[in-house]
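Much of what follows relies on a compact textual record of a protein's fold. Each token is a code from a learned vocabulary of local backbone shapes. The record below shows the convention in full.
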Amino acid sequence: MVNRQSLLLTVLTAAHLAAGYKWPSPLYDSLEGFLFEGRRRDGSNMATLQHPCKVRTGTQASIGAEWLRLAYHDVATHNIETGTGGLDASIAFELDRAEPTKAPRATFQNFGIGMVHSLDDFETFSTKYLSRADIIAFGTVFAVASCGGPIISFRGGRIDALSADVAGVPEPHQDLETHIEIFRRQGFSQEEMISLVACGHTLGGVRSSDFPNIVTSGDNPAVDNFELFDTTSQFDNAVVTEYVAGSTLNPLVVDTNATLNSDLRIFSSDDNATMRKLADPDVFSSTCATLLERMLNTVPSTVTLTEPITMIPAKVTSAQLTIDQNELIFKTAFRLSEPSNARNSKRIVTMYWCDRYGPDKDCVRQNVKTALPATSPRRDETTGSPILQRTGLDLVHHEFVVPINPDESISMFWFEVDEQDGARAKRYDNEGEGYKIAQDTIIYAPRLSSVTFSGAQRTQRQFVFVAGVKTGITPSRVFLSAFDNAMPDYAAPLNADFEMVFNDTIPAAAGYEFYTAIVDDSGSQLTIDLHAVVDDAVLTEDYQQTFFIAARTPFNRPTNVTIVRQVSPPSGPTSGSSHTWDLLRLEVIMGLLLAVTLLT
């Protein structure tokens, strides 16, 4: 029998090579990291707010159902004829939009504590490379997988709206013709409408405080009463089979007021033909995977999404040249994937690198520096992301901290992995090009930076950021670009440049002089890009985190360095390797990945 995890690793390797991935690719790296790790850069995990298929403390509502419903309501504004609306996070500005209706009372189209809670769940996770809309899409992917549903192929690159979009969400009291027209405007046929409603209503139910005309409150009006769409808490086709069998208690099917039975009108609109097809669990799963992916990819026509995000089996997750305790050091982390049921504690991972300056620049004399990890491997187990759990893989992080001679610096690095199984050690070198350090003129010094907190909730922060500029270089300008879109109540993002000034109160160290800038921020995910303008060229250190600064900066003592002879350090693309994999179409790879996933 073929080992499922080994086959999956092979498919994943093929997938990311076929997509032409090269490091660094900050957008892809960020999307891939969040999909398979589920957390932001400071370690806070969004996936585990819902995983494994949790209900919300207090209300006992299905968190997955709330996340899925929020995504659809955001998508519901899409108009295929004008190319406007879709998944753009405008839902954050639409919760209090009153819409006169034919219902017994005026209603809000997007309302309910579940939507408020979901937006609260997502508020602090967006970043420069993870839009608010992408985070909402991630929520649906996590929720469906966590509750046993299909793995939805994920694309990123959504662009956020900063105001409400047009109205257009279906409501229970509307007639069938109105529902068909609403879904047509969104890009779905009548059959797809039936299927999408069934896929959306396999989780959760109706809350009395949201629809008191459908679900009455219990003896205590202060406590919500729930009526579920089906008798299971999982993403399955029970909502269909119970309907077809005539045993359903779905409140949108069996309400005594026929006007409010929107699911009944939709499900029966083709004489139940679609529902009978969906009674097959495999048909239900594949149909939901397809339609929910289309739903999440419904964006304004001006937006171009990325290719599907697949796991990078061997990935550089961070790389930073910095000053720590007056010493120039290089920090990097290399993430490997391995089967959860076949852990290798004997694996040896070695980092290699070349000098940027001096007689052995770019390892021209084939003298290569090497070091072992500074810490024991750190493992991401499958409890972190439901997508990772479904692969049956763990992610293992190997962290390196090495001293760098300022006169030599570092130009590129790569890794060698010896599984200690008798096979030849495997080299990871960015497809023969090496993992290259773009520049060392300007670097980030988080240990020298600082932050102070203010405000009633201590949410207002003032940062003093420190950047090092190489001694002997006179830039015409040093500045930083600050970005934070994880703002309270989805306020407008911070997106501004700040001048950095030479600071002679910080002594020069390790070949660098220091510049500082002050930035005020009330968000949760501030990142900075550092820039130095030298001879009309702008040199940039991109996407630097601000959570681990000053005393919060982790310190690991730099490891010992060994110089070895290596006949062939990276110098360019490996002959033939990229071309061979580029012949593989990504659609074929994704099909293989789905097939392997279904072996669970």
Remarks:
- Residues 448-552 form a domain with the Immunoglobulin-like fold (CATH 2.60.40.10).
- Confidence is low (pLDDT under 50) at residues 100-108, 573-593, 595-600.
- The first strand starts at residue 98 and ends at 99.
- The first helix runs from residue 4 to 18.
